[in-house]
Amino acid sequence: MKKIVLVLLLVSSAIFSISVSAIEGIAVIDYRTVFLGTDLARERFEELRDSGEYKIISDESQKKQQELISVSEELQKESKTMSDEEKANMQKKAQTLYQDLQYANQKAQALEAELLQKLEAEQTPNVQKVINELVKAKKISLLFNSGALLAFDASNDAINVTPEVINLLNQANKEK
Fold this sequence. Notes:
By secondary structure, the chain is mainly alpha-helical. It has one domain. Helices cover about 80% and strands about 5% of the residues. The protein contains 6 helices and 2 strands. The chain has helices spanning about 1-25, 30-35, 40-50, 50-80, 85-140, 160-175; strands spanning about 25-30, 140-145. A two-stranded parallel ribbon has the order 1-2. Helix 2 (about 30-35) packs across helix 6 (about 160-175) and helix 4 packs across helix 5 (about 85-140). It is elongated and about 75 Å long. About 10% of the residues are buried.
């Protein structure tokens, strides 16, 4: 019995050491989070949200949303006393407001996507430089893009190097 326990203990320790050594040299990065997580990105998105064009779109979106809520509430309260034609008109108005709201949201998302593309184009050389230095410093053999994986433990700092890349990129941007 003692021999069986000893063998099981040796086998389990061997398996554990194999799995630990397999993890060494492997890392994962989330590029989207890197580009969005820098101080520069936060500043640029704040500037965008403070811009006149974005504020107009945002105000329009909020106005349409309030109108839609108002029409929906009125339709709900008064539907029992409304004619079918009045109900149809209110529903059509609600549908139009909803479409206007969707369009305003799409315009805002387009501005944000455009900014993200500019950030990526501007920051890609810096990101690549920081990643190359990190790969050498941490002796990473394989670096995976998180989008290419089914799952990984994002809380494991030994595997997820995204926060470290963001910090290094922030430092590199400050030195410019």
